[in-house]
């Protein structure tokens, strides 16, 4: 989908340089179609990096996608220039009366905190409740997945003895399921988290299905049967060097951190990391946009109702 974004957004130059089809407002207005409206609640500290990663996978498919970037009002990021936030981001109260075909809630480096202790938890609860009637399909990523499963279904998270950090093999549990269609029997995805959800808790919720899991990383993709809510516990959107950057960041801070598993060739941190998940990321994001959103969202976006 050609991606409709502001020409001044850093991602426009980055993605254009990768020969990814992005479209400015002027060109988009000449096309007589209804674009998919996708909101991204960006909770990551490095918001520009997260924008580039997500927008890369929301592009280059046949239809037009209009992006709305959202930030929390109850907490302001200290790792992204305020000028960037003011120019490209909206607050929830500015879009509360709008409808969206899709919403992405990103991860956040707060998984070791209790949900209620997160500065923007009350605001996030309000957004997740609003999404039930104003968004057709919501994709929750990493901590966003844990938060969504807890808020909507009471599924708890558990602390890990050691950080889940690296690239792990996953398998598809449900064949011929639209969200995982096209994935290999075994595929790879990055994880970077200190907590987990357990399959026994998800299986207690009749509305949920586990579509993919890993022997090492546990539950990976969870969805409702109608795909109105999708939860991914890892980071398919990560770039080649994201785990590398996190590793050296923590090393420089003097934190105890292991080398990310199955990532550096021979665990040699001087070598370029292998990227083994790009194809899987393209498949999952394209499937979500096509099957979970485009094929099912009402043509009249105002017809979206409570799931």
TrEMBL record:
Keyword Aminoacyl-tRNA synthetase: no
Pathway(s) of this molecule: Amino-acid biosynthesis; L-methionine biosynthesis via de novo pathway; O-acetyl-L-homoserine from L-homoserine: step 1/1
Principal location listed in the UniProt entry: cytoplasm
Recorded GO CC terms: cytoplasm
GO BP term, pick one: L-methionine biosynthetic process from homoserine via O-succinyl-L-homoserine and cystathionine
Sorted UniProt keywords: Acyltransferase, Amino-acid biosynthesis, Cytoplasm, Methionine biosynthesis, Transferase
InterPro entries referenced in this protein's UniProt entry, alphabetically: Class_I_gatase-like (IPR029062), HST_MetA (IPR005697), MetA_family (IPR033752)
Active site (catalytic residues): 142, 235, 237
Site (Important for acyl-CoA specificity): 111
CDD domains according to UniProt: GATase1_HTS
UniProt-annotated location(s): Cytoplasm
Function: Transfers an acetyl group from acetyl-CoA to L-homoserine, forming acetyl-L-homoserine.
Family per similarity comment: Belongs to the MetA family.
Cross-referenced NCBIfam families: metA (TIGR01001)
Name this polypeptide is given: Homoserine O-acetyltransferase
